[in-house]
Amino acid sequence: MRDEVRTFVIDQLRDMNYDVDGIDDDTTLGPSGVDLESLALSDLSVRVEDRYGLRFADDESEKLALMTVGEFTTMVADRVAGATTDNR
């Protein structure tokens, strides 16, 4: 699941016209990494929410900007797995 989420995130960043060359799990989403500003981070969050049926709390946006790509994809994969387990 984590690899699927990571591929989706990278594809969405590419679709949002970000340079994804050299992005790895240690690249931060915010400053000095992908450099997503708040609007772009919101766009990515909505795309992930729509694709995986999750919801991020309003107060999570600052935390998301400080996460690495690896941390973000792991968090999303864990939430998806948790939601799948909850629905059984």
Q: Your description of this structure?
A:
This protein has 88 residues and is mainly alpha-helical. It has a single domain, classed as Non-ribosomal Peptide Synthetase Peptidyl Carrier Protein, Chain A (Orthogonal Bundle). It is built from four helices and no strands. It has helices at 2-15, 38-52, 61-66, 69-86. Helix 1 (2-15) packs across helix 4 (69-86). The longest helix is centred in the last third of the chain and has 18 residues, at 69-86. It is globular and about 35 Å long. This is Phosphopantetheine-binding-protein. InterPro entries: ACP-like_sf.
- C-alpha geometry: globular
Query: Which residue ranges are poorly predicted, with pLDDT under 50 across at least 5 consecutive positions?
Result: none
| Residue-averaged pLDDT | 92
Major sheet attributes: none
- Beta fraction: under 5%
CATH class reads: Mainly Alpha
CATH homologous superfamily label: ACP-like
Distance between the termini: 18 Å
Give me the Rg, rounded. 12 Å
Assign a percent range to the helix content.
Answer: 55-70%
Specify the number of helices.
4
CATH topology: Non-ribosomal Peptide Synthetase Peptidyl Carrier Protein, Chain A
Give the helix/strand layout.
Layout: H1 2-15, H2 38-52, H3 61-66, H4 69-86
Helix pairs in contact: 1-4
Concise structural overview:
By secondary structure, this protein is an all-alpha fold.
Write a concise keyword list for the protein shown above.
mainly alpha, Non-ribosomal Peptide Synthetase Peptidyl Carrier Protein, Chain A
